[in-house]
Amino acid sequence: MSAVNNACEAFRTLLEEQLRRIENMNTEKTDFSAKEVVTIGVVDGDGIGPIIMKQARRVLENLLADELAAGTVILKNIDGLTIENRLAQGKPVPEDVLEQIKACDVLLKG
Fold this sequence. Notes:
Structural class: alpha/beta
Distance between the termini: 42 Å
Largest sheet: 3 strands, parallel
Radius of gyration: 19 Å
Helix content: 55-70%
């Protein structure tokens, strides 16, 4: 029964950590309507990601056509979040990619 109790305690700890993360997320709100420019980072990723993102970008371009034309929304391609690049650099998210991600207001990843 000790193994079951240990597993339950580990799961409890995990759930409590995630609930704290949710609480923090709920307090950090951004009013995008007050921003002059909203930058959406578009990350293709691996596998079918590039195929999905090509269509997702097409949808965004249609939905946000007026905002894109006015320059109030920018779609920024972010490359380098592929398995090959991550393995080559030995990092889950390479530093140069992380900098690009942090410069965005919103991230869309395939």
